[in-house]
């Protein structure tokens, strides 16, 4: 297993084009799990490129078999890194679909389940380049319908922000009826709504939703109105990413 390091996009593109997936090198058994843990650990142990503050996007076709990610999460946090994971809705094997989503949750990243055909389009909505810095991160569990008060959001710079939500931590089903993320203070308020049509049409049935919104320099109270059919527990990632690095690193949370 080799990792290639480059400093410009043209070299990255060339390397990818010269190393496209080869079915003959694939796992021959669906019970074999992904080696994504090993890949991440090897990246952080490399001596060719700096790793502190890394932003990592993993395109995951095969689930890992590991359920315990605590050691991996500690390694990522030690290097002040963020891991985003886009998991295939049609995996080729492995047994633990939620492990890498949990890793993303615990490192202020996003973990989404998407259909392979739309990977290139959905990649655009991961906060990698234009809005790479975590400014707000909370992960909550909800069931049925109701309203949740969320932690306050303190803005350090006034500009467009990338607001991102994963509506479920598995392949999307038909249970989501509506989500409304609200931000308010005495001088300003706004909201971002996600409904079934956003999932089926605008986002091709995946679980990640993104929105670019301008928020002035204020402190905001945050809340979420949610409505799901049935009473299954839903795990939601709610994130805001910024154009500029915060003066203090956003703390991680479990």
From TrEMBL:
Residue intervals of the DUF7154 domain: 138-242
InterPro entries: DUF7154
Gene Ontology biological process: innate immune response
Protein name in UniProt: DUF7154 domain-containing protein
């Amino acid at each position: 297993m080799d990792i290639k390091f480059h400093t410009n996009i043209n070299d990255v593109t060339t390397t990818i084009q010269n190393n496209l997936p080869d079915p003959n090198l694939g796992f021959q058994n669906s019970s074999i799990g992904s080696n994504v843990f090993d890949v991440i650990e090897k990246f952080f142990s490399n001596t060719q490129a700096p790793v502190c503050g890394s932003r990592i996007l993993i395109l995951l076709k095969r689930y890992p078999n590991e359920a315990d990610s605590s050691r991996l999460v500690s390694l990522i946090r030690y290097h002040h890194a963020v891991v985003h994971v886009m998991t295939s809705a049609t995996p080729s094997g492995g047994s633990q679909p939620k492990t890498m989503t949990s890793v993303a949750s615990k490192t202020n990243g996003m973990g989404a389940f998407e259909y392979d055909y739309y990977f290139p389009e959905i990649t655009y909505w991961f906060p990698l380049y234009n809005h790479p810095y975590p400014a707000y991160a909370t992960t909550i569990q909800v069931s049925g319908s109701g309203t949740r008060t969320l932690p306050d959001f303190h803005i350090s710079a006034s500009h467009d922000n990338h607001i991102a939500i994963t509506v479920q931590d598995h392949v999307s089903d038909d249970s989501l009826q509506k989500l409304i993320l609200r931000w308010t203070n005495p001088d300003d308020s706004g909201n971002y709504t996600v409904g079934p049509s956003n999932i089926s049409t605008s986002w091709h049935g995946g679980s990640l939703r993104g929105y670019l919104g301008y928020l002035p320099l204020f402190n905001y109270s945050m809340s979420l109105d949610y409505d799901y059919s049935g009473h299954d527990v839903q795990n939601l990632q709610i994130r805001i990413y910024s154009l500029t690095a915060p003066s203090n690193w956003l703390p991680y949370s479990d």
